[in-house]
Amino acid sequence: MGKIMMINASPRAPKSNSKEYAKLFAQYFSSETEYCEVKKSNHLMLCQKTENFSDILFVFPLYADSLPVTLLNFLKTLEVNPPQRKPTISVLVNCGFIEPEQNNIAVEMLRLYCTTNGYPFGSVLKIGSGEAILTTPFRIFLKAKIKKFAASIKTQKYDTFQVTMPISKKMFIRASDVYWEKYGKKNGVTKEEMKTMKIEE
Ligand SMILES: Cc1cc2nc3c(=O)[nH]c(=O)nc-3n(C[C@H](O)[C@H](O)[C@H](O)COP(=O)(O)O)c2cc1C
């Protein structure tokens, strides 16, 4: 294989967890990587760039059990502006809930896209507790999985991996409640307000 193009398709790419995941991937990947972010105005430029890579890694969050619209819109552009030589597409998806399986449908959507558009499909890494794991001691499990994921792409022995925080769902929910309550307090929002639609106003 040659170079890999990491495409961050998070709607908040510059400040995203996906950016951190891409950074970790680049640390463990033993060939050249290039990092790009999907923006409203750079779809065509990114499509042209794909010509120079043997592999693409889409890095993105799960949004409403699906692909974020940032990625959907980019895929639409790529569909009509494909590279001549189709790179292998791998996927690194993270979700907020603890179960990495929450990402399954999003992965299948991308797999279908690849089959329909003639892209070889590579490896998958599904991350659960994606908002939290980066800042906990469980980061070591994440790093170990990213290492394996990166090696599978490098050696073209494609596989599917998953990782999450090794705690019970109950404990995860309790810890999340404490985190979001503190976060709300810091921003002048109470728990009661967070439970209402007023949070959107
Ligand atoms: C609008 C929205 C929808 C989301 N939908 C889901 C979801 O369906 N399931 C889930 O587990 N997490 C969901 N999340 C949580 C994100 O996947 C999670 O916060 C992720 O770490 C964000 O990654 P990013 O910083 O790379 O964008 C959602 C977040 C937002 C803002």
Polypeptide structure, described:
By secondary structure, this protein is of the alpha/beta class. The protein has 2 domains: 4-165, Flavodoxin domain (Rossmann fold, 3-Layer(aba) Sandwich); 167-201, no CATH class. 41% of the residues lie in helices and 17% in strands. The protein has 7 helices and 6 strands. It has helices spanning 17-28, 43-49, 69-80, 104-117, 139-154, 169-186, 191-194, and strands at 4-8, 33-37, 55-61, 88-94, 121-127, 160-163. Strands 2-1-3-4-5-6 form a 6-stranded parallel sheet, with helices on both faces. Helix 5 links the parallel strand 5 and strand 6. Helix 1 (17-28) packs across helix 5 (139-154). It is globular, with a radius of gyration of 18 Å. It starts with a strand and ends in a 7-residue tail after the last helix. The relative contact order is 0.14. The protein binds flavin mononucleotide. Flavin mononucleotide is lined by residues 10, 12, 16-18, 61-65, 94-97, 102, 130-131. Flavin mononucleotide binds at residues 10, 12, 16-18, 61-65, 94-97, 102, 130-131.
